[in-house]
Design a protein that fits this description.
With about 260 residues, the chain is of the alpha/beta class. Helices cover about 45% and strands about 15% of the residues. Belongs to the HpcH/HpaI aldolase family.
Length: about 260
Amino acid sequence: MATKRTSRFRAALTDPSGPALGTWVKLPAMESMELVALAGFDFAVIDLEHSPMSLETAAQHIGVALLAGVSPIVRIPALDGGIVQRVLDAGAEGIMLPHVDSVEQAEAAAAAVRFAPLGTRGVGSTSRAGAWGATSREEYLRFGQEEVVLIAQIESAAAARAAGAIAAVAGVDALLIGAADLSTSEGRSESDPVVTALIADAVRDTVAAGKPIGNAGGATAASVQTSVDVGYRFTLMSNDASLLGGAAAAAVQAGRSVRYGR
């Protein structure tokens, strides 16, 4: 197989018409990922941090995503080279790592994601990432070095202040602001001026380092517009469970508005 694969997430980031749109996938049903793809999202983050999903289920989600045309990125709960290896060989186009607070942590993450000489990821080209051996070793390695993305989450004041330096680490491809954890760590609300100032500075410094930065927001045009106005290049619009719950609640509300005798 000589054809070069490209990262759908990276391609979406270069779209001049608007931000890359994604959502979290927390439900273990494969239909959830299929519906996310059919909706037209650019990428989906399979959430192994805040869901009880197994690694095997995540691998199945990745397979559905690749076939359905949405970029699969996996948020792992913590840096573990073995988990990174298995997730990427399952075909994930990227890793999202929570709570990256320092350059040293970012460098360790970048090493786990990249092959030698850039890092320590092992070679397993007979996995899905290598089309079960149908892709050449050269292409498998190229995709892992050039196309796979590492997204570092900024979720504390220390991380926000170091955002520019973290973004400048070779192998870190993007940052994501975790406003909920950042504000909670400071004992403040997300709208508190101290928190918004920390975020604004992190966005500024990340952009200055030449890297894209994103956020987790709501499922409305207003929310996405606010994200764009702040400077985010990609945004996560809610999650599969909340989108399902919101649609179900709206359906029931509409149904309850109907009464006998009209």
